[in-house]
Amino acid sequence: MTLPDQTFAEIRDIRRALHRQPELSGEEFATAETIAGHLQAFSPDTILTGIGGAGVAAIFKGPGDGPTVLIRCELDGLPIEDLSGLDHRSTIAGKGHQCGHDGHMAILLATAFLLTEHRPPRGRVILLFQPAEENGKGARAVISDPRFGTIAPDFALSLHNFPGYPRHSILAKSGFVTCASRGMRIVLEGRTAHASAPETGVSPAAAMAELIRQLRAMSFTARLDEDFVLATVVHAHLGEKAFGVSPGHAEVWATLRTLTDERMAKLVSRAEECARTVSTAHGLRLQIDYDDVFSASVNDNALTQMIRQSAGELGLPLSNLEEPMRFSEDFGEFGKICPSVMFFLGAGVDHPALHNPDYDFPDELIPTGASMFHRTAMRLLGGN
Asked: How, if at all, do strands 340-346 and 155-162 pair?
């Protein structure tokens, strides 16, 4: 099935309107309201709102009993200035859809149209517009919502557009597909002193430098395999901007990244032990906390083969994805409760990269992504 020109134009215009009004993780209530309003035109059996915060789910039922297929996209934008110069560029200073989640939402709206034209033969298709993917909190919040039990899936599908590959090409890899990661914040507390008598205080300066060196030394990036470890120091702060004060406070922020959740547990233990050893040696109090916590995403082999079959039947080129992606995605949480697959949709070889300030989602990918989702869901539910 394809999108009629008028339907494509309407959904493209919705996508561009969403692009003008991005909202950050946990703030996507206006976006969700807009999505829920547009979904009404496609007559789903039920629309649930407020799931896991701002989440929206549209339920399309078949005439008979069968499995539930969940298709998920993201609602949130990024704290990045939109420098695309396009007519539909973001109107919100410091916020933009430089990851293409506006395009992913448009793809699910187009999938809703296809489901209206060709309903599931049995079971259900759930279109989930998930909040807070960028900070790793949204999928967990949705799954923890008491109403999630009414839409719990037997299979879960998602996609992400990916610049650097031919437009409309499909990249699908079974097994590990995106990395586990988390943000680690290490706080070192000493005691301030006059800069002329630093020995009367306890400065965290030397400990901070030692900690940064040791964290960087933990990285092992020869191959993206089960031994892959990457510790990236992303921020450091020491004292205040005052020449007369020897510092008493320091912070080191690092992003820890591994391919597997098991390897992440070992890396976390090692980094915490390092922080404890350094802080104790320098007589400092230590505090550690975490944010932006992502599990690894693992693609089910059978679902991955179905994605490849759908691409072949639609005449879409398949690109070889030899290694998992280094970035993280909270879609991995759905893989813990049912077979799941995330595939990638080529956005163009020379297209600006994700999170670049001049990135914009290519509108022509909307019918491609929708056709892939609809065809795969129909196969899972026994339709043609």
From this structure: parallel
